[in-house]
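At this stage, I wrote out one protein's amino acid sequence and its C-alpha cells, and that material follows here:
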Amino acid sequence: MIFVTGDTHGQHDFGKLAVFAEQHGELTKDDYMMIAGDFGAVWDKETLEEDLKPYSDLPFTVLFVDGNHENFDLLDSYPVEQWHGGKVHFIRPDIIHLMRGQVYEIEGKTFLTFGGATSIDRYLRKEGISWWSKEKPSYEELDEAFANLGRYGDKVDFIITHSCDEKALYYPPLRTRTTMMSAYPENKLLSNFEDKVTYGHWYFGHYHVDGDLTDKKTVLYEEIRRIV
C-alpha cells in the first residue's frame, strides 16, 4: 500500500505517523508513506541518529520530497542512487529522499516528484544554518522533469510536490473570501505541470491545511490518504 501526507518537520508533526502506525498494525516495510515536503529530520548532523530513529521505527518505509525547511547541505552529502527508475538519496534503507524532477514506477503506478518552495520566514533564519537558497526549485530541475516525463508521454498517475501551481492558489481551502495565498516563483514553475502533464491526482503540502481543491488536486497536512 502507498499513503501520502503533508509536512512532518522532524519531530514537530511526527505524531500523526506514530498514531497511524499504531492503528495499522498490518503494515510492513513493503508499504510506503510519502511525505509531501518539509520532512525536516535530516537537519542537524550531530543529532541525526536521534532524529531519524522514530522514522525508522515505523513499520512502513518513508519516502519524502524535500520542502523548504530542509538542510540541503546535509541532504546533498548523501550519494545519488537509482531506485524504481529515478534518482534518490538513501538516508536509511527505509527512509528515502525522492529527488526533484524524477519519475518513479512503484507498485505499478507512476509518480512525478518535485520538491522545494520559498520560506516566507527566511528573514528570521541564517543562511547555511537554518536556511538554504537551494530550497527554491530551478528551471534546470524542471527541464530534467520533462526529460524524464518524456519517457512516459508526459503522463503519470500521481504528482507529489511540496508547493503547488499558481492556479491552485485560487481554490479553497487555499483561497477564502478574505485572503489568498501569495504566488511565488515556484508556483509559476509548477504551473508547467498543470499545463503540460496529464495526471491522475496531484498531492502537495506546504500550506498547513487539508482539503480537496478539485477532484484531481489535494493539499495535505495532518490528513493521511491511501492512494494505492
